[in-house]
Amino acid sequence: MNAQGRTTAPEVPSRPAPPRTGAGLHGPTSRQGPQPPTASNGAAVAAWVVGITALVTSIILIGGPLGVIGLVLGVLALRTAKRTGVGRAGAITGVVASCVAIVLSALMAVFFVWYADNTQECYQPDSFRQYTECVHHQLTGG
């Protein structure tokens, strides 16, 4: 009991902190675990973002030019990653996504040219229904 008549909890002896040995606060013996590398590869992040954007927009042909930019950034990022060891996964993702976007954009361009060539007689219809009938007739040959 204390002076006011209240009971207090018994004191628990505190344990002393274990002595620190090894490489210091951020070393292998710290409780925080291994630290990620502090260096970054901005080109890898840019290649990743541009490559994914190019892939998403490749269906409307914007992905082709974006894919070329992403491919250049990805190659630069791979060179930087080889030297620093940081950003290799993002660079590879950017290169692959950019290459796929370039191929998809090229295929879409070929499709649009083929479609325009096969339906050129249908470009001045009186109604949308007439246009769809003309396109169906031109593409099926019937």
Compact overview of the structure:
By secondary structure, this protein is mostly helical. The protein has 4 helices and no strands.
Q: List unreliable stretches of 5+ residues.
A: none
Specify the number of helices. 4
What's the Cα radius of gyration?
32 Å
The biggest sheet amounts to: none
- Beta-strand portion reads under 5%
Helix share bin: 55-70%
Structure classification: mainly alpha
Distance N terminus to C terminus?
103 Å
For the secondary structure, the number of strands is 0
The SSE order reads HHHH
Q: What coarse outline follows from CA principal-axis ratios?
A: elongated
Task: Please tell me the overall pLDDT.
Answer: 82
